[in-house]
Amino acid sequence: MADIILTINAGSSSVKFSTQQIAEGQLTLLASGLIEGIGAKATFTAKKADGAKTRFDLDQTHVPVDHNLALTAVLDWLEKELPGANVVGVGHRIVHGGPHYSKPMRVTKENFKNLKALEPLAPLHQPFNLAGVEAAEQAFPKAVQVACFDTAFHRQHPFIADTFALPRSYYEEGVRRYGFHGLSYEFIHRMLRYEEPVLARGKVIVAHLGNGASLCAIDSGKSVASTMGFTALDGLPMGTRCGQLDPGVVLYLMAQKHMSAEQITDLLYKNSGLKGMSGISNDIRDLEASDEQSAKDAIAYFVARVRREIGGLSAVLGGIDCIVLTGGIGENAVNVREAILKDMEWFGVKLDEEANRRNERIISDKGSATVVLIMKTDEERMIAAHTAELLDLKEPIVPALS
User: Fold this and answer.
1) What CA–CA distances, in Å, run from 181 to 14, 105, 172, 188, 282?
2) For residue 354, what is the domain's CATH number?
3) Rounded distance, CA 134 to CA 120, Å?
4) Which one of 50, 150, 291, 378 is the catalytic residue?
5) Rounded to two decimals, what is the model's pTM?
6) Model confidence over 214-250: pLDDT tens digits?
7) Is 365 one of the catalytic residues?
8) Which parts of the chain have pLDDT scores under 70?
9) Rounded distance, CA 374 to CA 332, Å?
10) Dihedral sign, CA of 297, 302, 303, 304?
11) Which domain holds residue 303?
């Protein structure tokens, strides 16, 4: 079997992975999977490209499953299901690269320490991302470990797009707007450059709408602004995260409700957004199926914020040529897409409602000044491509990712 690249997206209680084969300068997906319930009742699920599925509970007789045991399970599965697979590189999604890491890199002892130092900037993500790196080093000691940052795509922002109106010293020490979902935006841009090169050279807003949600303004292939800021809390309301919030609310919760930092973190990250507003679910599908007014209100607020941010980013760009909708909501939620884009002819956007209903690739009317596309994102493939590129392959990793 040819060389294999493994991608890992490690969270606090889960590990997503994919295996991609390198052959003749191409990446071919072999399998993808998920280990969830780390630290509790852990379950392993995998699906091969041919459709074959595997699912089993991990043995927790002696000790709870941690990230090391989870990656060991992946290794055992690879040896059984993909015999002869040679894992030459492991690509990791690392949420935070700080102000200095602006492109993927091989992980070394020195830069790993630097990434550990960034944990206070992403306390709910970074420690688990790095635990995945340590576990992969043990499970695949001969493979090159590659860090791919969710913040890297945004590191070319102008100062005014990255700063807060705080004393400059805070900016210098790293309190600034970083933006996230960069791997998704980079993948979409590369695909757009391959499929629609004229649009890719223009002014584009990409809406990554899912359980995590944000928008990015891209001008001539460069990110110039993003709705997310210092953390992945800012901007749009999300499945369980609050989105834009007056900082005075946090002061109120501290002073009047006597809430601790941990309690506020739990509220804003895990119990707000669609889940908090509706009191029902963080899943847009559940809310659309509900007759409760709170569900309708949560969807309406989400739609209103997306429309508002599209307007704001178009002002940053000085015009707009293309809107790309991606992520679970962007790719599938027909009614939400229609609500976001309807009655925007004044803005240059004319929706083709029938095309939207059919989930076609282009859902804007032929007479629309702004082209609206639905595109499927693939962060794992972007990570695999970066990893392959850092392995110094001479041939391009598929034209769209060259």
Assistant:
1) 18, 18, 23, 11, 19
2) 3.30.420.40
3) 19
4) 150
5) 0.93
6) 999 999 999 999 999 999 999 999 999 999 999 999 9
7) no
8) 1, 60-62, 393-402
9) 9
10) positive
11) 198-374
